[in-house]
Structures are given as C-alpha cells and as structure tokens.
Amino acid sequence: MESHQPCVLVLSGKSSVEKELAVSLKNSNTLKLPDYPDVSLFMHSEAQKPSFADDAAFKIDSYMNSLSTTRFGRFLLWSPRLPSTHDVVSQNFCELPIGAVCVADVQLKGRGRSKNVWESPEGCLLFSFTIQMEDGRVVPLVQYVGIPRLDVRIKWPNDLYLNGLKVGGILCTSTYRSKKFNVCSGIGLNVDNAKPSTCLNAVLQKLTSVAHQLQREDIIAAFFNKFEKFFDLFISQGFQPLEELYYNTWLHNGQRVIVQHKDEDQDEVVENVVTIQGLTSSGFLQALGDDGQMYELHPDGNRYFMIFLSAC
Q: Do the beta carbons of residue 152 and residue 249 sit within 8 Å?
C-alpha cells in the first residue's frame, strides 16, 4: 500500500451501544495512522454496497451472529487491505473501547516479535484487539491465555505449529498509562492459505472426507467466546487454573536444550544442558540443569542463547 493510497476502515458493532460509538468515531474522524494520513472511514451499512462486494472479504454479519461475548470483539474495525492491524489498535487505543478488534483480509506490513516479517496473504485470519490490565506482574502471561483447537501446538513463546509447520503467531505489546497497562494483542493464523507453510483447512481435508471448510469469521468468534471466559478466570485467579491447558498444547514437555551464556569472569561462552520444566511466574521458560541449577530462559538471546535438542 503506497502512502498516497487511502486506508479503508469499516466500523461495526454488535449492539446499539457499539454502533453508536462507531457513528461517533466516523463523524469525528479521530482514528489515525501516522504513516497513512488518508484514512477513509465507513459504516458497515455503507460497506454492503456493490463497491465493497468481494466473496473473499470478511463477513461481518456472520461474525457478529456467532459472537456471544459481553466485552471482547463486539466493536469491529475491518479493512480489505491494511498495513498492520496491530498499528490500528495500538495507535488508537484511547479512542477505542476495551476489547475492540481490528481485522484485515490482507496485511502489507505484518510483523512478529523482534520486528520479524509476518507473511499475510489472502486466506489468513489477521486480527488485533485491545486489553487493559492493572497488575503488571501478570501482563507477560496474557499471551498464553488463548488455547488452540485441532492439534495446534504452542512453540514458546508465541508461535503456533500444526504437524511440525508454523501456522500462526501471537504478538502482544503494552504501554503503561494512568496506572493501567494498555495491551494490544495481535494474532495471525493460516486458515485457507497453504503457503508459505500450511493451513488449517489443508490439514482438515487430509483428516476427513467431509467437505467442510473452516471460516475465518467462525474461528475468531469462537476465539473471543472462549478467550473472554479464560481472561476473566486469569484476572480473578491468576494463570494457575490455565496452566494444565497450556502445557497440554505446548511442544516443550521434557525437552532438552543447550544454554549458552557468557561467563564475564572467564570471558568465555559456557554451555549447559538443561531440561525444560515449565514457565516461571513471569512467563519465561524454567529449566533444570544437569548440574542441578535452575535456569530462567529468555527469548532472542536477551539472557541466554538456546539450542533445542530432541525431546527426551
């Protein structure tokens, strides 16, 4: 998307309250994307005109009809082509209600952790939504609250794998303002695009003879219906009630890794073989070394460099 091309956002809400807010935001024209000053806002009723007709477009009515939450996902921003859904919710956080979600059919500047590029072709489910929290100690754990179905597995900290291939990822960022943490959670999931790796529908077709296709609208609605319950449990009781569900879906039970870290006194790299035990209270990996020492492992070499071995 070139800078001179307008960025289209379609606003919608499940109830009259969210719909009135959508009208207010459209009339005030307060939603901005700094890198794309020309943002065109439309109501959902306007987006039903022939100029927006596209069989591959996100079906807002279908999504809203499947949604049963009280907060999350009820206010929707949709775009056929967008630089990044994460930018929309993070740069307009204070103008949007908590739980608002932005969905795009195609992302042009999707990203993962550490500014990695996230390929976002047609067929992906691409969305970001807003969360607000007060306890900073548990903010890092919120990215683990969503529990995937099928045989989707979690590769720590936030990659989703299916049959050994990456099919999705999660990106959470946060800022602190007025004694609260404003969290933007972005998720990308290969639903109907077999490239660049594989997708849910391709695997589903191999598992069953039924010609059923998973739809993006049903998946995201089901996600929010489940996430809202998990999030409320997480806020009231912490991560412990969700730990078993999380560990049942991740790839690292009993996995052995080599940890490399620099010994400042000896000015050399030291290697230790450790076994992953689970998560620390801060959401990092906890591992037990063959020397009996406990390790806290961080991603991206912030503290340790990890080489994953075969699970033992």
A: yes
Task: Quote the longest CA-to-CA distance of the chain.
Answer: 70
- Contact of 294 with 283, CB cutoff 8 Å: no
The answer to whether 85 touches 99, Cβ cutoff 8 Å, is no
Average pLDDT over residues 221-236: 96
* Distance separating alpha carbons of residues 7 and 252, to the nearest angstrom: 41
Residues 46, 43: Cα–Cα separation, whole Å: 5
Say if residues 276 and 285 touch (Cβ distance below 8 Å). Answer: yes
Average pLDDT over residues 186-206: 86
204 has pLDDT over 90: no
Nearest to 282 by CA among 175, 141, 114: 141
Half-sphere exposure of 16 (CA within 13 A, CB side): 0
272, 257 contact by CB (below 8 A): no
pLDDT of residue 33: 84
Mean per-residue pLDDT, 168-174: 91
List helix spans (H) across the chain. 16-28, 44-47, 60-66, 85-91, 200-207, 216-237, 240-247
Please state the rounded mean pLDDT for residues 276-302. Answer: 83
Which tokens sit at 212? 């059923």
Q: What is the DSSP string of 24-65?
A: HHHHHT----TT---EEEEEHHHHTSGGG--TTS--HHHHHH
3-state secondary structure of 241: helix
> Where do we find the tokens 């967008």?
82
Residue 256 sits at φ, ψ, to 5 deg, of -100, 135
Structure-model confidence comparison of residues 240 and 121, the more confident one: 240
